[in-house]
Design goal:
mainly beta, Thrombin, subunit H, Phage tail protein beta-alpha-beta fold, Phage tail proteins - horseshoe like beta roll fold, 4 domains, 3-stranded mixed beta sheet, 6 helices, about 15% helix, flat
Length: about 375
Amino acid sequence: MLNPPYYLQLMIGPGVPVPVPRDVMDALVSVTVTSNTASPSLFQLTFVLSTSSPLHTLFLVAGGASIPMIRVVIIVISSGLPEVLMDGVMTNHQVSPGSNGQATLTVTGEDLSKVMSYLPLDGLPYPAQPPNVRVLAMLAKYAVLGVVPLVIPPIIMEVPDPTDEIPRQIGTDLDYIKVLADEAGYEFWVDPGPLPLQSTAYWGPTLRVGLPQPALNTNMDAETNIESIDFNFDSEGATLPIVMIAPKALKFGIPIPIPAVNPLAPPFGLVPPIPKKIEIDRESTLKGAGAALLRGFAKAAKSNDAVTATGTLNVSRYGRILKTRRVVGVRGAGLAFDGLYYVTSVKHSLQRGQYKQDFSLVRNGLISTTPRVPV
């Protein structure tokens, strides 16, 4: 479907997907995969549907009540190596009659975190278990789907005394994992890969460190490798979180302002906006001091993302696939906006002979903290 050196592979099936037949690949019109940091990853497949197409069997029949889960894996082969764009489940399919007698089948779905939202397990006890152990226990159910947990223990762990309190699950596994992540100032997401039929379930702090991806170049003549990029600086959105710490010896809370300083999310801009809003987390008095501070640091880092950038690139021109939740450099945009950014969203759009990506980047302020970015 794509031009060399990129090739598309599609796997579909109940539980364990298998490569689709040639007829299905020939009917494929477009593929869209959206990877976000703040929400589940989504995919959409569009097919031309003829009366004799095997898609009637693969989707319309298999999507019925007899088979509860249809798994979809989307892989791009780049230089002989597989790059898994999506490993998820089908949530909906829609048939639209065409004006020329040729119908269109649109299949949509989400990543494997959707499977974690199917079964409510309210009241399941976790006696004397810290939050990270509870998360590991919940994720163990999905090892059969190739989900590998990557759970980072909180810096300050508070293990509830079973004689005083036994934590119990609230809602589905996904609901409760997100509650525990919010209480610890962490995030949770499921990322496909690195190998086909394998996904990584990450529960831990937001990490904005690591080796940067190749720079996005604009206004650099022959070195320009993106089609467009736009920047926005929001000086009004910065917020100063205040957590309330309530020691047992006192009957009132002590307010503690949280600066936007996080070694796991270092500042990429020299001129951050001055916080003009104050957000008091009154629920923090119900938590321990460690959990309250971690939650405050997470809010401070997110609220100070004053610079945002959105744009489009052609993967063939860029030379590789831009990935979300990683750092990337920008060159050629001028002194105020050049430098390193954190990739918050990437939308893959694949059609016959074309592979483009829409991206969103953020950082904390203007003027780069680094003199140059990796090419």
